[in-house]
Amino acid sequence: MIAIVIFMIIMIGGQTYFVRSQSLIAYDNVKRHAVADAVRKMESLVNLDYSSITSSLNETSVTVNLGTRNGTRTTTITNIDDTADGEGGADSDGNTVDYKMIEIEVSWTTNREQSIEISTYVVE
Question: Which of 19, 41, 88, 118 has the most CB atoms at less than 10 Å from its CB?
């Protein structure tokens, strides 16, 4: 009888470990697909001519395939004015677009909302 109880405890622990490890593997696969999608999108944007990288390329909640799940991708392009680009911290060039920031977020839901975000600056 004691052997059966010990066997059952071991089996339940093993099953719990198996279920958790499968969940972690599934999460890792979804995350890997999310990172790959964000990187592909980022590469396509940074390879454009500087003047072509505009807010018209912004995206909001575009559905993307993340392997076994769907997620959403949001792309935000922001013009940045470096107000301290001259001597003594002055805005010497008067340019309102000194560089552009590209942010890409990919989100998905498993048991909870999860996301990854990558960003970069593009300088003319």
Answer: 41
In 3D, which of 102, 21, 111, 116 has the Cα closest to residue 66?
116
Q: Who's near 69: CB < 8 A, 6+ residues apart?
A: 30, 108, 109, 110
How does residue 59 score in pLDDT terms, banded at 50, 70 and 90? very high
Q: Which two tokens stand for residue 40?
A: 């592909």
Mean pLDDT of 30-49: 92
Q: At residue 52, does pLDDT exceed 60?
A: yes
- State the pLDDT at residue 13: 56
CB 72 within 8 A of CB 104: no
Q: Are 101 and 81 in contact (CB under 8 A)?
A: no
Chain centroid offset of residue 13 CA: 34
Q: What is the pTM of this model?
A: 0.70
Alpha-carbon gap, residue 52 to 100, rounded angstroms: 11
